[in-house]
Design goal:
CATH superfamily: 4'-phosphopantetheinyl transferase domain
Helix content: 25-40%
Shape: globular
Radius of gyration: 18 Å
Order of helices and strands: EEEHHHEEEEEHHHEEE
CATH class: Alpha Beta
Number of domains: 1
CATH architecture: Alpha-Beta Complex
Number of helices: 6
Length: about 250
C-alpha cells in the first residue's frame, strides 16, 4: 500500500547549522521553528526551577516517572514548550494552558493565534517544533548501532521501505532505518494517531505523492536523527537551547 493521501517526503538534509537561541530572536510568525536541547547542559538547580514552574498536575506527572532520565525529559519538554508558546502568542508562561485532543495529543487551550506544537525526546535530547501554519509532528531518535533494525523493519515497514534499506550500503543501512522510523513517527504525531495499528501501511519511502500536502524533512545531528512533518515546504528555523539564562 502507498502513502496515505496528502503525504510527501520532501528531503533529507543531513547535518545542519543550529543557531544558539535568544528569546529576542524568536520573531517568526509564520512557518515552522525547531528547538533542540541537550539536557546534559542543565544543572540540578535549573531542573528544580523548571519543575517549580510547572502546574500541580504537571508536577504529579513528573513525579510519577520512575527513571530520572524520563522525568528530566518531561520537565524540560513541558517547561520549554510553555515558555516558547508564551513567546509566540505574546503571553506570560503562566497564562499558557494545555489540554489533550481526542487523540491524546497535547494542544494549546484557547490559543489567541493559530499555533501548533509537538515534542519528542531521546536520551538527553528534547526536540520541540512550533508551527504557525498548521499541524506539526516531530520525532528524534538516537542511533543505536546494535539495534535489530532488520527484524523490526521486517515487521513494521512497508515493502518499499524495506527495499530502500536493503539497497543501502551496510554502513548506512541503520541510518536509513532510523530516518524511516522518525519519518513515520513525525507523520503519525502530526495526525495525532500515534504509533498504533499497522505501521507498514504508512509508506514514507516515496519522494512525493500525487495528493501531496504534508511534507517531511529529516536532519542528522551527530548520533541523532530527527524528522519534522509539516503542512508546507518552508525550511524550519533551527535553534539550540542549551542554556536557561534569561529563560527561567
Amino acid at each position: 500500500m502507498g502513502s496515505p493521501a496528502g503525504f510527501a517526503v520532501s528531503s533529507y538534509q543531513g547535518n545542519i547549522a543550529w543557531q544558539q537561541f535568544k528569546k529576542e530572536n524568536f520573531t517568526r510568525k509564520s512557518g515552522t521553528t525547531l528547538f533542540l536541547s541537550d539536557l546534559s547542559f542543565f544543572s540540578d538547580h535549573e531542573f528544580r526551577g523548571m519543575y517549580s514552574a510547572l502546574s500541580g498536575d504537571e508536577q504529579k506527572t513528573a513525579d510519577a516517572y520512575r527513571h530520572q532520565t524520563s522525568k528530566k525529559q518531561f520537565i524540560a519538554g513541558r517547561y520549554l514548550t510553555r515558555f516558547l508558546c508564551s513567546l509566540a502568542v505574546g503571553a506570560s508562561p503562566g497564562e499558557i494552558r494545555f489540554y489533550l485532543s481526542e487523540h491524546n495529543k497535547p494542544i494549546l487551550a484557547d490559543p489567541v493565534i493559530p499555533l501548533c506544537f509537538n515534542v519528542s525526546h531521546a536520551a538527553d535530547r528534547v526536540l520541540i517544533g512550533i508551527s504557525f501554519d498548521g499541524e506539526i509532528g516531530v520525532d528524534i531518535e538516537k542511533v543505536n548501532q546494535d539495534f535489530d533494525y532488520l527484524g523490526f523493519s521486517d515487521e513494521h515497514f512497508s515493502a518499499g521501505e524495506k527495499e530502500m534499506i536493503a539497497r543501502a550500503d551496510k554502513s548506512m543501512a541503520i541510518h536509513h532505518f532510523y530516518s524511516t522510523w522518525t519519518r513515520k513517527e513525525a507523520w503519525l504525531k502530526l495526525t495525532g494517531e500515534g504509533i498504533t495499528g499497522r505501521l507498514e501501511l504508512y509508506d514514507v519511502s516515496k519522494s512525493e505523492n500525487e495528493n501531496a500536502g504534508i511534507f517531511i524533512t529529516t536532519f542528522a545531528d551527530g548520533d541523532y536523527l530527527l524528522s519534522v512533518a509539516q503542512a508546507d515546504k518552508s525550511t524550519p528555523d533551527c535553534f539550540r537551547i542549551n542554556s536557561l539564562e534569561g529563560l527561567l
